Structures are given as C-alpha cells and as structure tokens.
What does this fold into?
Amino acid sequence: MKIDSIDHIELYVEDAEGTAGRLCDSFGFAVAGRGGPDTGLHGCRTILLRQREITLLVTEALDPAHRAAEYVRRHGDGVAVIGLAVDDARAAFAAALERGAEPVSPPEESGPEGARVTFASVTGFGDVEHRFASREASDAPFAPGVIDETGDTGATGLLQSVDHIAVCVPAGELAGLVRRYQQVFGFDQIFEERIVVGSQAMDSKVVQSSSGKVTFTILEPDTTRAPGQIDEFVADHDGAGVQHLAFLTADIAAAVRDCTARGVRFLTTPDAYYDALPGRLGSADLPVDTLREFNILADRDSFGEMLQIFTESTHPRRTLFWELIERRGAQTFGSNNIKALYEAVERRRAADQPAGS
It folds into this structure.
C-alpha cells in the first residue's frame, strides 16, 4: 500500500454552516461545494472547503442514526475522517483489512468513466476513520454526483497544506498505535521523545508515510506524574482523538497578521521567552522583535529552523485547536519550544513573587 498524501480532512460538527463560515472567515478557506440528501448523501449535509492543497469537509448529521450524530454526541465537534490519497482505493482497502484493520465503509465509486473517484474507509484510532481516496483524473471533482462544486478551487491563500496531525491517546496506547500504523498502513516511526514539563510528562512518537507527506504526532500522558494537557484532552474528548491540525505556510508572520485581523486569537508568549531566545537558538531567520510581536515560537534542529504558533481553542470542551507552522528546513516538531516556554513562564512567576515570600 502506497499512501501519497492527505486527500482531505472531514470534521463532524453540530452546525455545518456555522463551522464552515468560521473557517472561511478566520483562515481564508473558500466554499468549493455542497452536498446533502438532494445530491445523494444520506442523513447528512456537507460543505466542501478548499485552500491551496488543503481540502476540508464540514459535515452535519440530519439523521440521529448517522455516524456524525453519534460522534458529536460523544466528542463534540472534531476531526472524524482523515482521507488518504492512494493509487487504488479498492486495493488499499483490501490490503488494510488483510493487515488487521476493521472496515467502516466498503469501496464506492462516483463519476463518469475516466474521471471516477473511489472512496473506502477503515478504522484508524478512537472514533477516527481513514478513508482511502483514488481518482482516475488528477483534476476530477471531489465526489462527482455527490457534492455539487461551485468552481472555486481555493487556489489562493496563505495556508498551503496539512503539515501534520497531532493525536492524543490514553496512557498505555501509544506503542500499540505506532505498531498499527507500521503494520497496517506501512508508516515508519521517524521520531520519539519524552517531554517533561515541571511535574508533568508525556511521551511522543511520530509516524510518517513513505512519501513523507502524511505525518502523525502521537502523544500519550505519563500517569505517574501530575495530570497535564494530554490527560485533560483524553478526559474531555472521551478517548483518543485529534488534538490539532497544523497548517503549513511559507510566511508565518504574514499568516499570523492576516488571521489576527480576521479575529483569530493565538496563544501569547511571555517576553522572557524572547529574552532567552538568542542564547538558546542563536540568530533566528526572523528578527526576535518580529517573533515577539506576533508571539511566534522558534526552534531549530539539525536540518534547519521551524517557526510555529498555536491558536486558542474555541471548542466548548477546549479540545480541538489549530497550529500554523513554517519550516525553513527543520523536520521535527518543536519540543524545545514547550520546555523553553514553560521555563520562561516559571521565571516570570518567580520575578512576580514578593521579596521574601
């Protein structure tokens, strides 16, 4: 099985129109199509969003028996389907079942000969499924005859593609999920680390397709330490799930400026982080004053520099959020930022303590 790239991401939500509108207003996505009972979808309505290489589906259940309804009841709005582009969805589906995956949806075709699109889904993690997608023509509509497209291709925008998907799993499930991606989907483990933040700790492993275009960062809490953000996600989300999507951009400062003007609220970073940055990182590609102005975090690995920022979560359960990331050669995921940010906060807290306390 050869997985080429992320074909699409589907969110199950309570209000498709509202969620799609916020994604367009906040991040510059364009509505590229719509589907519902009148186009052949059963029990749901879907809005197709695009921006450059990113395709999102926003789906709302109309029938309480639809899978989206149960997903939202259990988890709230969230990422429920990760579409994987393959040469042959039927063959990928058969291979995944042979390697131990459970079927979700058997292969279905849509569209005319020469432009057919085939989808087939298997279990992924938690209640998230992986949908294999293959297209006879590279310029074929997303799902011809099922979603009516508007003609807007979303060809412009500051966000380019999905860089990685961060997944939180309950304690004890990390190693098994990594093996599953290796055995069922043919991924490789490319990175692992243990992150200690004060009295908290978490373990992380990264798996990636052989193409290098599909990457999952999988996080597991250490329950022998104090509860932290991963424990909270698993409890509030009710199990394993997608914590955030990271969107790749070629100009993070411009993207943050644009999204902020659109009303996106990003996490702020204390000045002490930037005061310590030159000593930790050396000279950064972006001036420290620019990083400070936009609250952008900077890190470096042996391949180059990485710049990133996280949004505040607007999810009622404070689970799902978003990341913007610019890679200037770096191939890792900014663990030094977590540690440096924590240390900077602690220094600020200590400085704020009254003398003698």
